[in-house]
Amino acid sequence: MISGTASEAPGGGALDAAAPGHGGPPGDSVLDRPEVQRAGWAWGDAEAQVPPDAPLPALVSVAVRLLGAFISGTAQGTGISPAGLSVMRLLAARDGLKSSEVAARGWWTAGTVTAVVDTLVRDGYVQRRRDPADRRVVRLYLTDAGRRKVEEAIALIGPKWRDAFGYVDPADAPVIRKFLVDTIDRFGTLIREERGQ
What we know:
Blueprint: H1 34-37, H2 56-75, H3 82-93, E1 97-98, H4 99-106, H5 110-122, E2 126-131, E3 134-142, H6 144-164, H7 173-194
Antiparallel strand pairs: 1-3, 2-3
Helix pairs in contact: 3-6, 4-5
């Protein structure tokens, strides 16, 4: 789950690009290297500390996992899955999108969007409607119940998300914001390139 670059070990330190992989004698595998074994901090080993030289990809991977777990936990009391809430928030801002547009904007697969929307339709939060200008096109709309549900969820979750970032020094916020905006831009570009867009 944690991925370093070609020259970095997930737990810190460098890996030789030509290092042997699986299948060799014990001690001959990349997985047996000390820098990889030190990655216990990433998996929650007791007493484990984040190494000062931990590579950025490993730090981001762990941070993303933790944020995902926190967000899932805060969504528990809403009666909507985190994915469902994300789709509904998107439709609250841009109602009437096609499923493919929802998938593209959320970086989801078409199959994921279909499954999530099926549940939201069943629960009465989203409607599928044919586009009057082109009957082949189906668009997604929040229902009144869906709009109320999104408002309730944001009111419940919003303060928890804001409080969670209370540890950030306001003086550091511009640097963190720039890093996150640059990361969003960079990985958005990489995903579009990978998908041939």
